[in-house]
Amino acid sequence: MSQANIINLGIQIVPKSKTLDTYALVDKAIEVIQQSGVKHVVTPFETVMEGTQEELMVIAQKAQEAVLQAGADEILVYYRMQIRKDGDVTMGEKTDKFQ
């Protein structure tokens, strides 16, 4: 697999805080992803990004840090990735037929 292959990465960050609103904390992670410029789709359960694994993991780590810096006591992070050995994976190949 080439490092430059495009993958899909779904990330769900579940913040824990005794005093802060969960949705407001999640919004901090989504802001990081939006500002990154990568193709992404926000869903009710996770945000899916499209790009190289290397760039998406950097963005994911920044999103995690943003939630912690916003005041979360701890976070649970769930990743789902689709990686193709000899080619790119795009969101469009799975969802464009529904547009």
UniProtKB/TrEMBL annotation:
Thiamine-binding protein domain span: 11-98
Annotated signal sequence range: none
InterPro entries registered for this protein in UniProt: MTH1187/YkoF-like, Thiamine_BP, UPF0045_domain
Pfam families according to UniProt: Thiamine_BP
Top-rank taxon, per record: Bacteria
Gene3D superfamilies named in the record: 3.30.70.930
GO cellular component: cytosol
Family stated for the protein in its record: Belongs to the UPF0045 family.
Name this polypeptide is given: Uncharacterized protein YqgV (UPF0045/DUF77 family)
Species: Cecembia rubra
